[in-house]
Amino acid sequence: MADNAQPVLPLPGGLELRPWRTTDAGALVAASHDPAISRWNLLPPLAEDEARARIGRMRERWERETAAVWAVAREDGDEGAGVLTSTGICLAAGPRDEHAENPVPGDILGLAAWIDVDLDRGHAEIAYWVLPAGRGTGIAVEAARRLTDWALHDLGLHRLTLCHAVANGASCRVAEKAGFRLEGTMRHALLHADGWHDQHLHARVRGDDQNDRDDLDDLDDRGNERP
To answer: Out of 56, 77, 89, 199, which residue is the most buried by the measure of CB atoms under 10 Å away?
Structure first.
């Protein structure tokens, strides 16, 4: 990782995964004050200077090969670009609200990252959040799929995990749609503001795609197992 620049990865609907820039600090501030994001993510409330420092640490973590953090953004900051919805419909983005308490740069819709990267053991955990402008559009699933492909085939990892509070049903659906199989429940594994939460552990391992195809080959057109 450290020997290469962090790549920009294309997503459907005129979106991309790109490294965070210091000029994106406003989006990070807004995310840190968003109730839905703060409920399920360990992101403390940030001021502008704290957000810029956090973005700087993202670059350091890439260089130390411990994490890879991307912004989910419209290509080239194009605020008129479409957003791919879960039904495949592209929606035009609305204008940036300059009068909001924490105005969000119009091209940033969320964050997606590999954390706890261990290149020697071939493991990493995915993390993500989506700002209000991107919710309900399917971009969390698209980002998870794209980062999974990059991690397995470009970075060469072997096992990828996705963990979320059991009460966070939206993340459970993202995991399932992105191909992360549920492996079990970890009791009282994460402390949120309202107390300890059980967590679901989902995972993808190298070869799952082929296994999924083999399973489908064993079924007939009605989904019944072939003799």
So the answer is: 199
